[in-house]
UniProtKB/TrEMBL annotation:
Annotated Pfam families: Mg_trans_NIPA
InterPro entries attached to this UniProt entry: Mg_trans_NIPA
Primary location: membrane
GO cellular component: membrane
Membrane topology field: Multi-pass membrane protein
Family from the record: Belongs to the NIPA family.
TM region(s), chain numbering: 36-56, 77-97, 103-123, 135-154, 174-196, 203-231, 243-265, 277-296, 302-322
GO molecular function terms listed in the Swiss-Prot or TrEMBL record: magnesium ion transmembrane transporter activity
Compartmental location: Membrane
Protein name, entry field: NPAL3 protein
Region (Disordered): 388-408
Organism: Struthidea cinerea
């Protein structure tokens, strides 16, 4: 009897064992190979995208500095940059199908490092070695720290892999940790949006936090869409599932609103501040979303998690040092501000501006008239209406002009 019952017991326990194994993260060498493929695709994509953006910027600068009447989209340089940009974005998109989300997102520091190196190589000014090192020492240190942080991220990144099937994505979507995370994120997003729109709190942290919260949902949906496409290519069709199109619509919508807030931030703040603060906030939010939705760190030991966090911190510091050294643009002022001139009158009475008086005449944009110059070279002067005394019926002008003698 016992011998007859043992095969039936083994058959009943077999499906439970296989189901338990499918939930656990992979620990074989193939999962590390997938991590390496995803990391290389992400690094390649960010590197090519950085080259493409600098190539398009070079096309705009070249047209602005020449007398070429062509538009920028009619040049081969701009189209080459656009082709490389599409190629780089495809590489980054494909990387989400192989490696965990928490590993791919911090690798965007590669684009910052590449932009810094390209900017140093293509410097037009000639610097002495000492001045060059003094000016760009922070960039070199930042690039080194970003490379070290990237190495730690790839080495100690999460190793959890799961097939992005419609069933798995739906199960993660309705899990209570992700629902709780979404509730907190929606509340925080609404509060930030209220202070930004109603209270006019145009702080860079508030705007970039809005971008980071939207970006965390963007990368979650990107991984779902890319993973389902990869599973469909491998033979199991997933494109006929409604969850695929739900994720696709969410990906496009969050990306559009994210770009809108980024454009508003670029109008108010410097691009270097946006790059550093935005990278830190977006990476933190994306890792939190990946750990909650895809359970990236499930089954990882404490050492790997600590080393991964250390790699993130080092990459954050490297990006901050790189963007810290960028030269801020100085706005061009074509005219002289009258209130900034010492000893000049600048009075305002009920919205009527009173121009300063100098030598009984005033010329716009000039400190004083030069009577010795020919008439054709002298700037245009405004007529002076002197105050009349003794006539009570005549209304006086709203300002008083004092005469200056030639001796003065």
């Amino acid at each position: 009897m016992e011998g007859g019952n043992s095969p039936s017991l083994q058959l009943q326990q077999l499906p439970l064992a296989t189901a338990a194994v499918s939930v656990q993260p992979h620990t074989d060498s193939f999962s590390y190979k997938e991590n390496l493929i995803g990391a290389l695709l992400a690094i390649f994509g960010h590197l090519v995208s950085s080259i493409a953006l600098n190539l398009q910027k070079y096309s705009h600068i070249r047209l602005a500095g020449s007398k070429d009447p062509r538009a920028y989209f009619k040049t081969k340089t701009w189209w080459s940059g656009l082709f490389l940009l599409v190629l780089g974005e495809l590489g980054v998109f494909s990387s989400y199908a192989f490696a965990p989300l928490s590993l791919i997102v911090p690798l965007s520091a590669v684009s910052v490092v590449a932009s810094a190196i390209i900017g140093i190589i293509f410097i037009k000014e000639k610097w002495k070695p000492k001045e060059f090192l003094r000016r760009y020492v922070l960039s070199f240190v930042g690039c080194g720290l970003a490379v070290v942080g990237t190495y730690l991220l790839v080495t100690f990144g999460p190793n959890s892999h799961e097939k992005m099937t419609a069933e798995n994505i739906t199960r993660h979507l309705v899990s209570w940790p992700f629902l709780l995370y979404m509730l907190v994120e929606i509340i925080v997003f609404c509060l930030l949006l209220y202070f930004y729109k109603e209270r006019n709190a145009n702080y860079i942290v508030i705007i970039l936090l809005l971008v980071a919260l939207l970006g965390s949902m963007t990368v979650v949906t990107v991984k779902a869409v890319a993973g389902m496409i990869l599973v469909s290519i491998q033979g199991t069709l997933q494109l006929d599932s409604p969850i695929f199109y739900i994720m696709l619509v969410c990906m496009i919508a969050t990306a559009i609103y994210q770009a809108t807030f980024l454009a508003q931030a670029s109008q108010l703040y410097d691009s270097a501040q946006i790059s550093s603060i935005g990278y830190i906030l977006s990476t933190t939010a994306a890792i939190s979303a990946g750990a909650t939705f895809y359970l990236d760190f499930m089954g990882e030991d404490v050492l790997h998690i600590c080393m991964f966090a250390l790699g993130c911190l080092i990459a954050f510091l490297g990006v901050f040092l790189i963007t810290r050294n960028r030269k801020k643009p100085v706005p061009f002022e074509p005219y002289i501000s009258m209130d900034a001139m010492p000893g000049m009158q600048n009075m305002h009475d009920k919205g009527i501006a009173v121009q300063p008086d100098l030598k009984a005449s005033f010329s716009y944009g000039a400190l004083e008239n030069n009577d010795s110059m020919p008439e054709i070279y002298t700037p245009a002067t405004l007529p002076i209406v002197q105050e009349q005394h003794g006539s009570k019926g005549v209304s006086a002008p709203p300002y008083r002009v004092l005469e200056h003698s030639k001796k003065e």
